[in-house]
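Good day; I would like, with your permission, to put a structural problem before you. A protein sequence and the structure tokens that stand for its backbone fold form the material at issue. The record follows directly beneath this note:
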Amino acid sequence: MVCAAVWFGDPTTPGGALPVCPTKLIFGVTCPGCGSLRAIYSLLHGDVPAALHYNAVGVLAMGLLLVAFGAYCLRLWTGRRVRSWQHLRYSGVVVLVVVLAWFAIRNIPIEPFWSLHV
């Protein structure tokens, strides 16, 4: 349902039906999730380089979520415990550090970091 809304809403068109990121609208900074709708739209259309341009960490997170969902489905199917990345000892800390670093790096107003600003 959400993918259909993103497909038909076309977030790559300025002033479209889908809303702008509230953090960017109110505070004027690019949050870690900014560009995620455009990245999902690009992935739905098979354009991986554009998706990585819009939000590389978001694309990585979507991949990790798919792996976790696959491990969960495998556990339900086989009845055995399946370890995935989220069961690793420091996975929560690593995810937090990556998201905070992505937030900081995307908002540095000099090149080459400014090219990550969407």
Q: What stands out?
A: The chain has five helices and no strands. The helical segments are 2-9, 22-27, 36-44, 48-78, 91-106. The chain has a mean pLDDT of 87.
